[in-house]
Amino acid sequence: MLENTALMFGKYSLSEVTVADGGLAKYIDLTPTNVPHSGGKHANRWFGKSKLSIVERLINNIMRTEKYTGKKLKAYKAVADAFDIIAQRTKANPVQILVQGLENAAPREEVTRLQFGGISVPKAVDISPQRRLDIALRNMSRGVVAASSKNKKPIAQCLADEIILASKGDMTSFAVSKKEETERVAQSAR
Q: Do residues 74 and 68 make contact, with C-beta atoms less than 8 angstroms apart?
């Protein structure tokens, strides 16, 4: 007998996806849905974005870049195609690969400036889980758009490459290299 559960893009089940990072688990929403489009019903609410599907947040972040500004359907198709490529290459659930990539691309510390009299001193601080996820998504989408511009490869191919590299923790991934750079700077500012 068939279960009545929603599949992401009609293909990928979210029931077997697990989040290994305990801090990020509360903010990565894996509620089953066919189409990751909420219509902005969580906008302008405290922690409203943590109630959005993680795939929709990825689509929204891709939509914030030059060519895709305001074009949600175009970004949606790019992510759907990228998930097909990931499933084909890794033989695993692409949402699980995305979650692993976000866990590997989320920095744990960053630098802030403290004012002491007339001088500002850099100080390393821990990052909240919500901000860690925001930074990982932003870096991933910025890296994808940078890789696909002035390049013959379509954005779906670049997104699939970025997600797979980030899930492996590979330094050639834009998001993982940004994370390492941020943590290295924070290490020196301790």
A: yes
Is the full-model pTM beyond 0.85?
Answer: yes
Cα separations in angstroms, 136 against 3, 100, 106, 132, 153:
33, 11, 5, 6, 23
- Tell me if 30 sits within 8 A of 7, measured CB to CB: no
39-46 contacts: CB < 8 A, separation 24 or more? none
The pLDDT of 126-151, averaged and rounded, is 91
- Beta-bridge mates of residue 109: 126
